[in-house]
Amino acid sequence: MGNTSFTEGKTAIAMGNSSLTRGKTTISMGGTTLKRGKTTMSLGKSILTRSKTSTSLGKAKFSRRKTTRNIPSNRSNGIYP
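and the corresponding structure tokens:
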């Protein structure tokens, strides 16, 4: 667990600033990650594939807020005397 870690193996778990890993399973938590493997799970600053789904979910939330705004107003009049 340092600034730079070089690991070569089937399972590599690196927690540092920059990690270069070569293996089948790589789990890295850091700022910069360069890895070559079959399965890669990265929790860092650069997640570009999930940003597309987050924008689509964000638009769905905005469209559903119109219905959710009417429900609390009705509940506040009915439940609270």
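(Above: one complete record from the training split.) The chain has one helix and six strands.
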